């Protein structure tokens, strides 16, 4: 095997594409094609990166402080009035070797853009920065020849193509050869907002006592209606406690069955406030300060029969769409990215195809298990059950350990 770098094409600069580029840049020449522009809307709402993701990102020069990540110290559950039901501390770092970070989705993407494209010396890693080509859609893919067609009609050839074009992947059928398999609505709808401390101070005079960066404000808090309406409100701090995420979950209204889903769709603040008006009044008044409300019907997708064809591989939501009920979607994308370490300089095209098959054989069963556990999470589960799932999710130690498990 020679030491010549592979020419890698990555389609999509979301979390999966940029995490993949951050890993692959170490040994290869990486070009990412993104149909949006540099400021492409990624949403400023919150998300959680668990130790299985954080452990991998730290090895790529990822800086949790730079990304505004707030380390989570456990969960608290409340009834809808805000009375504490259970406080469940978790020492993520002690138990799984890294923090669980609560951060803005846009900050995570910005930091991944840095780990993919900053100089090796800035990050303390090896390899040349990946190149990101914005405003360029990939309109076709030939996985066997590792060829892509761009929106201007030009054709680009790589040694390998990583397909990270997201939940509504247009290129998925080129690999699965199945036009029918796509994400479906799960019957749950989510309002999501992130509110700044500054806006709350301006509107309400001061922050509520539970939003106290100096105090014990490092839990993921969950309020449950417990009145048969299946409404849940989760809130947690973001960006050094300067922001707060609120996710308000409820059964999907009947009239939304035919609405085409988008992560970036705006929601109606009045509707959100009405749906949660019987929840804790202090929380309700913070919700009323929101300047931007996002509204999604949650979707997931039956496990695919293949993620790989020829020299192309699906990763991220294109490969495994799941709801955010376990907060593992992006973490699975980061694990997918880590598996690309198996692609080595100088590999022949046959070796690349074989390596992608190996990755598929390890990653697909794990992502399927996490999808099934996430579906289970929508039902009543015990604390012990939740912790067992958490151990499974957060205990992942990378592709080399996973391959050992197969032997
Ligand atoms: C409400 C909500 C909350 C969530 N919370 C969490 C959480 O707490 N923790 C967690 O781990 N996960 C969470 N997730 C899931 C997580 O956000 C996704 O799993 C993750 O963002 C998927 O990343 P991706 O790169 O696969 O897709 P995306 O981020 O959608 O990126 C796809 C990219 O591909 C580009 N693209 C698409 N088609 C083309 C094309 N033809 N050519 C070029 N570019 C193209 C798009 O423009 C986009 O930039 C949440 C999801 C939702 C909806």
UniProtKB/TrEMBL annotation:
Keywords: FAD, Flavoprotein, Monooxygenase, Oxidoreductase
Record-linked Pfam families: FAD_binding_3
Record's signal peptide: none
Keyword Cell cycle among record annotations: no
Domain of life: Eukaryota
The FAD-binding domain, residue ranges: 6-372
One GO molecular-function entry: monooxygenase activity
UniProt family annotation: Belongs to the paxM FAD-dependent monooxygenase family.
Protein name (record): FAD binding domain protein
């Amino acid at each position: 095997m020679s030491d010549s770098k592979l020419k890698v094409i990555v389609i999509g600069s979301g979390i999966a594409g940029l995490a993949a580029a951050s890993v692959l840049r170490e040994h290869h020449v990486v070009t990412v094609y993104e149909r949006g522009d540099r400021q492409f809307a990624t949403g400023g709402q919150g998300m959680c990166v668990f130790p299985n993701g954080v452990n991998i990102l730290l090895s790529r020069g990822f800086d949790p402080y730079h990304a505004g990540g707030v380390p989570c110290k456990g969960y608290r559950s409340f009834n809808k009035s805000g009375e504490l039901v259970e406080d469940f501390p978790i020492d993520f770092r002690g138990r799984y070797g890294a923090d669980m970070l609560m951060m803005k989705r846009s900050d995570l993407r910005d930091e991944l853009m840095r780990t993919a494209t900053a100089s090796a010396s800035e990050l303390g890693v090896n390899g040349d920065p990946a190149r990101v080509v914005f405003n360029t859609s990939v309109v076709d893919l030939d996985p066997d020849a590792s060829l892509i067609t761009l929106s201007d009609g030009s054709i680009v050839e790589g040694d390998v193509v990583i397909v990270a074009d997201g939940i509504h992947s247009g290129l998925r059928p080129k690999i699965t050869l199945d036009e029918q398999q796509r994400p479906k609505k799960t019957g749950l709808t989510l309002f999501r907002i992130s509110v700044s401390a500054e806006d709350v101070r301006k509107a309400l005079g001061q922050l509520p006592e539970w939003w106290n960066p100096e105090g014990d404000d490092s839990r993921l808090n969950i309020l449950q209606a417990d009145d048969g309406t299946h409404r849940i409100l989760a809130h947690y701090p973001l960006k050094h406690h300067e922001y707060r995420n609120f996710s308000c979950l409820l059964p999907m209204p009947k009239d939304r069955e035919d609405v085409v889903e988008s992560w970036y769709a705006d929601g109606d603040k009045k509707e959100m406030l009405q749906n949660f008006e019987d929840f804790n009044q202090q929380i309700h008044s913070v919700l009323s300060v929101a300047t931007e409300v996002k509204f999604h019907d949650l979707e997931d997708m039956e496990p695919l029969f293949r993620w790989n064809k020829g020299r192309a591989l699906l990763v991220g939501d294109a490969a495994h769409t799941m709801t955010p009920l376990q907060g593992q979607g992006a973490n699975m994308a980061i694990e997918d990215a880590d598996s690309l370490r198996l692609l080595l300089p100088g590999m022949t095209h046959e070796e690349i195809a074989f390596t992608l098959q190996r990755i598929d054989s390890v990653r697909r069963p794990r992502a399927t298990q996490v999808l099934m556990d996430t579906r289970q999470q929508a039902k009543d589960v015990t604390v012990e059950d939740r912790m067992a799932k958490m151990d499974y999710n957060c205990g992942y130690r990378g592709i080399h350990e996973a391959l050992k498990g197969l032997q």
